[in-house]
Structure prediction request, 260 residues.
Amino acid sequence: MCFYMVDKEKKELNSNMNKQDILYIIAPAYNEEENISNFINNWYPIIKKYNGKGLSRLVIINDGSKDKTYEIAQKHMNNKPLLEVIDKENSGHGSTILYGYNYAIKNNADYIFQTDTDGQTIPNEFHQFWKLKKQFDIVIGHRNKREDGLSRVFVSKVLKLVIKLTFKVNVVDANTPFRLMSRKTLEDSLKLIPKDFNLSNVILSVIYIKKNYKVKYIPITFKPRQGGKNSINLKKIIKIGSRAWKDFVNINKVLKKEKL
Prediction:
């Protein structure tokens, strides 16, 4: 009986310690009126479960959508107190993510998780990431079985090669929109990234390796887009790729000055 009480007290103590960690889920949205309600309903239980100090938040950042994404998301705030919906001018996915990361840090989040609002990721796979948060500085999803088309797989492979040639590092899956980071390491890494950087998650993956932070990759499910149209087409991919090369060259100079 005594041992049972001790084990029970330990479990309760561990549970209370976990509840002290403030989690911010950052989710950019652009023209996602067909997906945004499902996304919020599916991910809100996660933020409720890991509501550290009552201050954890699911943050939707509307990147100047031209449809009703913002209005639909706002309505969910009426009965979801841990949901925040922010509206901003369109600046692209990468800079919107950076905006969200800085917002989470400003609001004293202990851990920041990023995913997208297109319904391609599965909320239940978050739990295994949370369990590893103390062991690693960043836990990233590895899309080893992507269901979003061969063109996206090809782009990811090319990106991996470009990173290898430019930064001399191997990145398993550089641009995964499913990552959990500690505030301390994220805040330190963001200092090296311009606020309008296009492929922000990509360069974060590089910086974490360069800084010898503890990085863990976990296989995740990556479904096809659940509704609406993908705003990224071949023409945009070529444009992004051209800009990315210039951005990579410039930031590589910064990293070399930092001796990373």
The chain has one domain: 14-257. The two ends are 55 Å apart (CA to CA).
